[in-house]
Amino acid sequence: MSSAAGDATQAVALSFDDGPHPEGTRRILEALAVHDVKATFFVWGAQAQAHPDVVSETLAEGHSVQPHCWEHTSHFQMSAAAIGADIDAVLALLRELGVPTPQFWRTPWGHLQSGVTRAAAEQRALALTGWTIDSTDYAGNSASEMHANVTQELERGPGEPATLLMHDSNLEPIQRRSRSDVGETVELVRRLTADRRYVFGPLLSGLDDGLEEHPRSGPPPPLARRVLRRLKRDALAARRRRH
Ligand SMILES: [Zn+2]
Questions:
Q1: How far is the CA of 172 from the centre of ligand 1 (A)?
Q2: From the CB of residue 24, how many other CB atoms can be counted at a distance below 10 Å?
Q3: Which residues, including other chains, have CB under 8 Å from residue 194's CB and lie 6 or more apart?
Q4: Measured in angstroms, how far is the CA atom of residue 7 from the centroid of ligand 1?
Q5: Residue 115 domain-assigned?
Q6: Cα separation, 124 vs 34, whole angstroms
Q7: Scanning 14, 85, 87, 206, which has the fewest C-beta atoms within 10 Å of its C-beta?
Q8: What are the b/e assignments for 110-137, b being 16+ CB within 10 Å?
C-alpha cells in the first residue's frame, strides 16, 4: 500500500525449505511473530513425520505449509515412479497432520526432471515453485552479507512481487558443513521484517524462477517407495480400526 510518491513498498513472500526442525523452525517462527509476518514453509516429509508438533505450531501461527520432498534427493537422479512416490508420501503425511490441501511444490534445489516433474505436479494439482531471490543462507553467509544482497536485489525490481528462498534447518548435508544453525537466517528475517519498505504476503511470484530442468542422470533411490507403502498400510489399518 503506497500512499505517496517516494514511499513505494515492495511485496515480498518469505519462503523456508528443509524444515520442520525443532530448534531452527521455532527460532524462525519467533522472529516472524515479532512483526506478525506470515511465510510459506516447504517441508521435508521425513522431518515432518519426526516433528509433527512443529508442523502444528507453524500452522497455528498462520503460516502456509507446502511440500518440499520426502527424501532430499535431486529429481535428476530419481525414476518417474520414485518422484511420484516421494511427493505422494509427503502429501499423505501432510493430510494426516491436518495441513490444508497444498497448492505449491518446491522440489529439492528446484531440480525438475524433464518430462516427469511437471507432469507429476499437474496430476496432483500442484504449482511448481521456485524463487526470485536466493538468500544463499545454506552457504554459511553472514546476516549482514545476505541482507546487503537481498535488499539490493529487491531494489532492482521495485513493484514486482519477490519470493525469497531461505532455510529453517541445516540438515541437508552441504548446509551441515557450512553452517551450524539457522542463527544468520533468523537475523536476516529480523532485519527484513523490521524494514518498512517491504510488505510481506503470500507467494505470488517465482513460480517458474530458480528451477532447473534436466533429463534423468542417476539410479533411483528405493526409500521413498518403501515409505509410501508403509504410510498406505498405516492409513488402511487406521481405517479398519475405525470400522
Ligand atoms: Zn531443500
A1: 7
A2: 24
A3: 34, 35
A4: 35
A5: yes
A6: 35
A7: 206
A8: bbbbeebbeebbeeeebebbbbbbbbbb
Range(s) of the domain holding residue 230? 10-242
Q: What CATH number is associated with residue 161?
A: 3.20.20.370
Q: Does a structural domain hold residue 1?
A: no
5, part of any domain: no
Instruction: Please give the distance, rounded to the nearest whole angstrom, from the Cα atom of residue 43 to the centre of ligand 1.
Output: 8
In a domain, 14, yes or no: yes
User: What's the CA-to-centroid distance between 2 and ligand 1, angstroms?
Assistant: 34
Per-residue model confidence as pLDDT tens for the chain (243 residues): 434 434 568 999 999 999 999 999 999 999 999 999 999 999 999 999 999 999 999 999 999 999 999 999 999 999 999 999 999 999 999 999 999 999 999 999 999 999 999 999 999 999 999 999 999 999 889 999 999 999 999 988 667 789 999 999 998 887 888 888 999 999 999 999 999 999 998 887 667 777 888 888 754 444 445 555 655 666 666 666 665
Q: Is 177 exposed, middle or buried (0-12, 13-18, 19+ CB in 10 A)?
A: exposed
Q: How far is the CA of 19 from the centre of ligand 1 (A)?
A: 9
Q: Locate 180 and state its grid cell.
A: 551450524
**Counted domains in the chain:** 1
For the stretch 96-100, contacts whose Cβ atoms lie closer than 8 Å and that sit 24 or more positions apart, written own/partner, are 96/231, 96/235, 97/48, 97/52, 97/55, 97/56, 98/56, 98/59, 99/55, 99/59, 99/65, 100/59, 100/65
Nearest CA-CA partner of 15 in 142, 131, 178, 183: 131
